[in-house]
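Sample intake sheet
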Amino acid sequence: MLTRRTLVAGAALAPFAAAAQPAPQMPAPGRRAWAAQVSQIRLGLLGGENEADRLGRYEAYRALIEQTFQVPVRLFPAADYAGVMQAFSAKQIEAASMGASGYAGAWLDTNGGVEPLFVARESDGGISYISVMVVRADSGITSLEDLRGKSLAWADPNSTSGYLVPRSELRAAGIGTESGQYFSRTGFGGGHEQAVVAVLQRQYDAAVTWASGQGEEREGFTRGNLRAMVEKGMLNMRDLRIVWKSRPILNGPMTVRADLPAEFKRDFTQFHLALAAAHPQVYAQVERGGGQGYAPVTHEMFEPIVQLRREEAAERRRRA
């Protein structure tokens, strides 16, 4: 069973660590020596949001990286989380911001061929977020108990907050997560945004998605999928009700191929650690809302999620 400690993996110490560090500086523009090995930076973009919106949110970010390091930067939007994981396995991308479960899956698929550099800080300086389960406000459903016999949409099979963690926590509470057990049916919405839309359109009674868990719930919290949908005019939070929240989950990391030059990883990390202060609008676009920049992480902090992925794979083999 997952616990608060294993999910957060040290996130509670993040605000104190941040206070002890000097303000990072944006790297000076210029082509680096590592460009001889990394002639372009290909960035994978996770699914869960329509492609035009993803490309639009990331364009200023892409251009800023290109201007800073003076190598071409290309965006590769994937249809789903698995697309980015497969791109890492095929060495078709250098980096991608991933959820913890997606990172763990890519790490397993590549036998340790990827590594995490940093994660986003929330508005309080911490580095965790939550999974939330939402229903329509007019559904009459006010609790998890009311969802017995109703339908549930997961976001994506490789999503941490949209599948792996809520499935684990529900099962630990004795709630069967397969169709016909506790819920009448379960299925995948095709991404976080699409899963919430499916609830609004009455295709499912409930869906799970991600949120910072901070700020005003009526505004979709400080950042996350709900906040992004509110800001795009796709959602009024008065139309939804949150009936369940997970324990804190370690934020997903910026992931890079492990075989890239150490100097590239250092410069790429420095760029991001300075991004929120130097270019707050670019940071807010990429992170779907407010926060306090980024914090360095290590693979060891994601080992609980790696273990959970292993357990899920073992269960699938038993069912096959």
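Comment: The CA atoms of residues 114 and 257 lie 4 Å apart. Residues 1-6, 8-19 have pLDDT under 50 and may be disordered.
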